[in-house]
Design brief:
The chain has 2 domains: 57 residues; 292 residues, Aldolase class I (TIM Barrel), CATH 3.20.20. Helices cover 31% and strands 21% of the residues. The chain contains 11 helices and 15 strands. The strands form 3 sheets. Strands 3, 4, 5, 6, 7, 10, 11, 12, 13, 14 and 15 form an 11-stranded mixed beta sheet that branches. Bound molecules: S-adenosylmethionine (SAM) and iron/sulfur cluster. Iron/sulfur cluster (SF4) binds next to helix 4.
């Protein structure tokens, strides 16, 4: 029988309730497993006898395992290759920032380093964005909510994770229920992340955006807009045909009205495709009535055969200037991290046959000196 992850909150709740066990026992169980990842169920103190029986028969401490780790040469970024229960692999990326110095290289200083975890929600992705390595894999499978939470647990052994961004492999809103369940777990003890510090990034799945604020109040939303007009969007993102720009803007307006939160707009800068001054004006006009922060993302090459080129620094800078000065929209340029380990935005791909590769074995976590 396929075992369930103990971090799958909905499964634990329903199994415990049907067995007459208080589902709140989930919290001490999670705490114990996080602190003692190699534990067996009987070691966990003070649970009702029925809970031990249930855990033994239906649950595993982890349904995924940390298979390999890669570190960027500047020490700011670590990529985790995680093996799932179905044998597939996903990647998650830790990005370290020193709160006093900006990005952090080398060892963290106590109290000074806050890390962001970029998390995966699917193996592959069916949306097929033409600039994205994950999109080139096609869709393979959905992660369970337990497997999503387990990425946080694995990463927490390496860094003090304060922010989560669903910007790893997959389209989170195409795996809606598991993502919602996982986020709800991350808001609970012992993780207790603030909803504002969890960002769901989407290509623009309109029907899901429409219910997101209700299901996850306070959550941050990032939208991969990438073009100010439908025609260019369709050219680079096939999913835009299913989610026309006007419908997407209507959904964003409704999200903003109900959440009263700013929305993050991601805009990949592709040389000669969407980075002209005219495009900056179109984008400014489209967004001038919204509370947004625009993040311009330099295109990260995804292989030698890519049809795209990274915009020049000059194009990025004049694009940013127009949005800031003509439209008064806060516009930042993303500092890419982890390119030397293919851990930057859009570079996550695990492309062995059947997504089953056997990379080098894991180094001892204690030896990593992160
Ligand atoms: C990989 S996606 C995952 C989340 C979600 N599916 C989305 O599209 O927003 C995270 C971000 O990476 C961006 N991205 C994809 N390929 C990229 C590339 N080659 N260079 C830079 N950013 C890229 C996406 O457009 C998106 O803004
Ligand atoms: S950018 Fe996001 S939606 Fe597009 S293919 Fe990549 S993971 Fe999927």
């Amino acid at each position: 029988m396929k075992m369930k992850s103990v971090f799958d909150a909905a499964e634990i709740k329903s199994e415990f309730e049907s067995a007459g066990i208080n589902p709140n026992f989930m919290i001490p169980i999670w705490k114990y497993v996080i602190q003692n990842p190699d534990c067996v169920w009987d070691e966990i103190p003070s649970l009702p006898t029925a809970a031990y029986t249930l855990l033994h028969s239906k649950f595993k401490t982890f349904t995924s395992s940390l298979h390999s780790l890669f570190h960027s040469s500047d020490g700011t970024t670590s990529k985790l290759l995680i093996k799932l229960q179905n044998g597939a692999f996903v990647e998650a990326v830790i990005m370290r920032y020193d709160t006093r110095l900006g990005m952090c290289g080398g060892k963290p200083r106590p109290g000074g380093v806050r890390s962001t975890l970029c998390i995966s929600s699917q193996v592959g992705c069916k949306m097929g964005c033409t600039f994205c390595a994950t999109g080139s894999m096609g869709f393979k499978s959905n992660l369970t909510s337990g497997e999503i939470v387990e990425q946080l647990v694995h990463a927490s052994r390496l860094a003090d994770i304060r922010n989560i961004v669903f910007m790893g492999m997959g389209e989170p809103l195409n795996n809606y229920n598991a993502v919602v369940e996982a986020v709800r777990a991350m808001l609970k003890q012992p993780f207790q992340l603030s909803p504002k510090r969890i960002t769901i990034s989407t290509v623009g799945v309109v029907h899901a955006i429409n219910k997101l604020h209700n299901d996850l109040p306070g959550i941050s939303l990032a939208v991969s807009l990438h073009a100010p007009v439908q025609e260019i969007r369709c050219q680079i993102m096939p999913a835009a045909r299913a989610f026309p720009l006007q419908k997407l803007m209507d959904a964003l307006q409704a999200f903003q009205k109900s959440s009263q939160q700013k929305i993050f707009i991601e805009y990949i800068m592709l040389d000669g495709v969407n980075d002209q001054e005219e495009n900056a004006h179109q984008l400014g006009e489209l967004l001038k009535t919204f509370q947004v922060v625009i993040n311009l993302i330099p295109f990260n090459p995804i292989g030698s055969t890519s049809q795209f080129k990274t915009s020049t620094k000059q194009s990025v800078s004049s694009f940013q200037k127009i949005l800031r000065e003509t439209y008064n929209i806060r516009t930042t340029v993303r500092k890419e991290m982890g390119q030397d380990i293919s851990g930057a935005c859009g570079q996550l791909v695990v492309n062995q046959p059947d997504n089953k590769r056997t990379p080098e074995p894991l180094r001892d976590i204690e030896d990593l000196h992160l």
